Amino acid sequence: MPRKRTKLYALPASTPCATVEAALNLKAIDYERVDLLPMSQVMTGPVRYGGTTVPGMRLDGERLVGSRLIMRRLDALVAGPPLLPPLGSPSYAEVLEAERWGDEVFQGAPRRILIAALMRGPGAMESYAGAAKMPLPVGLMRPAMPLTARLMRMKYGARDDAARADLAELPRQLDIIDGWIEDRLLGEEQPNAADLQIGSAIRLLLSIADVRPLIEERPAARLARYFPPMAGSIAPGVLPGEWLSRATSTGEERAGARQPRPGSATRR
Question: Which residue from 203, 231, 227, 52 is spatially nearest to 131, judged by alpha carbons?
Fold first, then answer.
């Protein structure tokens, strides 16, 4: 019996969805991307793929939810190129820990910062749809974009104080990523699971013009090269200047300081 075509259920601008899509392309796995309306995954996800978050996947009858679980399954399905170092190698546990950090810790910041920007300019939401095949024409979705931004703000806790704190913390998190690149845990020619998990979030941050100067000259910015260009963008001047000046001053204070990294060990 022929294998059913893999289906990836995704949202435009979702970093974990971009992570899984990059892994599918890296392994040359044929798949169909099904784009959902923002927030609709809470209602339709349980029926379609067994969860209320994205990414979701239908793979030969299996229902899978979450980028890390899906990438483990893709490695089992197609061995090469592998998304993790060989089991038992010194870097195996470190890549898993960097991937976990990217998923559980770092990923939330770009999401909250983006939502804070969309609250101030909800029209930009349309740009992130890009060439996605949405269930409704963009023209019909446009009037609901301000409400969608507010619902996303509630769901993800993207209050102004949270987004402001995320920006202030960003230089420290970038120090961690830069250190992993220096240690050659990340940033090699062949991306691993942590590269994809963290790189998708870096790509999203680079699409926000006010945030881009904090990142673009750092080694961390190179992780975005594992992905196609971001469809959407946020114009400059949307985020409050006080938030950005605080993030800039925090980065300057930390310049030159090597920050401790979760689970790191230096390899040369």
Answer: 231
Domains of the chain and any CATH numbers: 6-77 (3.40.30.10), 92-254 (1.20.1050)
Q: Which pair of structure tokens corresponds to residue 137?
A: 């024409």
Q: Are 114 and 234 in contact (CB under 8 A)?
A: yes
Helix, strand, or coil (residue 234):
strand
Q: What is the pTM of this model?
A: 0.90
Give the separation between CA 246 and CA 128, rounded to whole angstroms: 27
pLDDT tens digits along 127-159: 988 777 777 677 667 787 888 889 899 989 999
Question: φ and ψ at 266, to 5 degrees?
Answer: -80, 135
Residue 64 neighbours by CB under 8 Å, 6+ apart: 49, 50, 56, 57, 58, 70, 73
